[in-house]
Amino acid sequence: MTNNNLRVVEVVEYNPNWHIEFKEEAHKLRDILKDEIVEIHHIGSTSIPNMSAKPVIDILLEVRDINAIDYYNEKIQQIGYIPKGEYGIRNRRFFLKGENDRTHHIHAFETGDTEIKRHLNFRDYMINHPEEAEEYKNLKKDLAYKFKYDIDKYIEGKDAFIKNIDLKAKQEFTEGFMK
């Protein structure tokens, strides 16, 4: 008997259509949020070429006023998203499309929030360092196999690796701007 309320951790091979899916959602979000949006970024593993990933498109919205995003919850719900408020990260607005069978996440941050740069640095670092991207890919596959029915353990298992890459990326991109 299957439990439809169980979120299964599945890491799949890279899909080049993820970029197309991102662009389609970005277009819908621009139509809804219009002047609130500063920039829309594709982040997370689906934004990294050849990276295996959970098939969930992560979208980072850089917005003018984070509090103004709350006024758009109903319109964002109309295109299939569930508003979750800050959802554990201060000054963020988080939306998910699908509960246990998610297809997209939206992370909205106000311009200048350090989380924006952290996410972009991580993505760009992984693109520029294929050997570490390969290591991350293998870690995620192993964790997904080991914790197929425990998303919290899967996330916990990636934590140290991600923090290490965050530090390397911050250093690399900070030094790069100083040159």
TrEMBL record:
It comes from the Bacteria. Keywords: Transferase. SUPFAM superfamilies: Nucleotidyltransferase. One of its GO terms (molecular function) is transferase activity. The keyword Transferase applies. InterPro entries: GrpB/CoaE (IPR007344), NT_sf (IPR043519). PANTHER family: GRPB DOMAIN PROTEIN (AFU_ORTHOLOGUE AFUA_1G01530), GRPB FAMILY PROTEIN. This is GrpB domain, predicted nucleotidyltransferase, UPF0157 family. It comes from Clostridium collagenovorans DSM 3089.
